[in-house]
Amino acid sequence: AISIRKELGIPVRFIGVGEAVEDLREFNPRLFIDALFSS
């Protein structure tokens, strides 16, 4: 997703947290980074 943003300039709007359509969430970069580095 980040490379698509970099190459095409298309912003990341949603992120999948599962396999179903209902598992799409609005992408929040701050929450993503916080979750990535939380212990």
Describe this structure in words.
The chain has 39 residues and is of the alpha+beta class. The chain has one domain (2-37). 41% of the residues lie in helices and 15% in strands. It is built from two helices and two strands. It has a two-stranded antiparallel sheet. The radius of gyration is 11 Å and the shape is flat.
Produce the secondary structure layout.
Elements: H1 2-8, E1 14-16, E2 24-26, H2 29-37
Antiparallel strand pairs: 1-2
List the keywords:
39 residues, alpha+beta, two-stranded antiparallel ribbon, 2 helices
Brief digest:
The protein has 39 residues and is α+β, with helices and mostly antiparallel strands. The chain has one domain (2-37).
Q: What is the overall pLDDT average? A: 88
> Which stretches are low in confidence, meaning pLDDT under 50 for 5 or more residues running?
none
Shape: flat
What is the number of helical segments per DSSP (H or I, 4+ residues)?
A: 2
**First-last Cα distance:** 24 Å
Structural class: alpha+beta
Largest beta sheet, briefly?
2 strands, antiparallel
Give the strand tally.
Answer: 2
In total, the number of domains comes to 1
Rg (C-alpha, Å):
11 Å
How do the strands of the widest beta sheet line up side by side?
A: 1-2
Strand content: 15-25%
Secondary structure: helix percent: 40-55%
